[in-house]
Known about the structure:
The relative contact order is 0.18. This protein has a six-stranded mixed sheet, with helices on both faces. The protein has eight helices and nine strands. The chain is globular, with a radius of gyration of 18 Å. Helix 2 (about 90-100) runs parallel beside helix 4, helix 3 packs across helix 4 (about 135-150) and helix 4 runs parallel beside helix 5. The longest helix is centred in the C-terminal third of the chain and has 21 residues, at about 235-255. By secondary structure, it is an alpha/beta fold. It folds into two domains: about 5-75 and about 155-260, P-loop containing nucleotide triphosphate hydrolases (Rossmann fold, 3-Layer(aba) Sandwich); about 85-150, no CATH class. The chain has helices at about 45-50, 90-100, 105-120, 135-150, 165-180, 195-200, 230, 235-255, and strands at about 5-15, 20-30, 35-40, 60-65, 75-80, 155-160, 185-190, 205, 215-220.
Amino acid sequence: MAKLAVDARNVGLSPAHGPDILGDISLAVEEGEFVAVIGPSGCGKTTFLNAVAGLTRTTRGTLTVRGEAPAAGRPDSSYALARDTLLPWRSAIRNVELALEMRGFPKSERGALAERALTRVGLGEARDRHPNALSQGMRQRVALARAFVTQPTLMMMDEPFGALDAQTRVLMQDLLLTLLDEYGGTLLMVTHDLAEALVLADRVILFSNRPARVSGEYRVAIPRPRNSQDVRRESKFISLYDEIWTDLKDQISQSDPNRL
């Protein structure tokens, strides 16, 4: 039986005041699997990801991360957000080093590891620039370098390219695909972009409108390595996109009939 990186069984979240956010989510993510979660806006995708990261406490069911209760700041995990969250007073390399500092890496090792990570994302020459001297795409590449530099076994991403323009977003997807080709860990990502989910993931999970439940699971049977433009031309991509979009559209129309 495959080991599970994330195991959610009937997980729910009912605030003391207000409607339920998560409703009986059962979802297993295997070690080494790349999984994308999609669903209507506001359905609870980020809340679930925050629960896996140990940032939000659920109120029922069981949730384990690599066999243990979720905990914030796990040394074997990283969490990349939609915004790059770079510290403006630190250079690019010092922002990448921050992840190593937080994980207790020796000071003597941080510089070389951070520089290698920046070079991997094509920013070796920008190591001493501060965030205000970087484009949004460059800032997001620094954030990617920071996410990968500790070599986490579980990487969580919440709309990592959501703040980028369409062209830069495609370029960043290709960069992430290249990084994932060498990554031996697990990826759990939330995205509003269905095409992005199909380009990056091995499996796509569809959440229903709030309270979120798993309403669909889809295997992306497209071999790796992948290129984002080539993948979009695959017949499997097109047929799966249409299938999932039909199911997603149903959820969106149920949550807000006026949106469609």
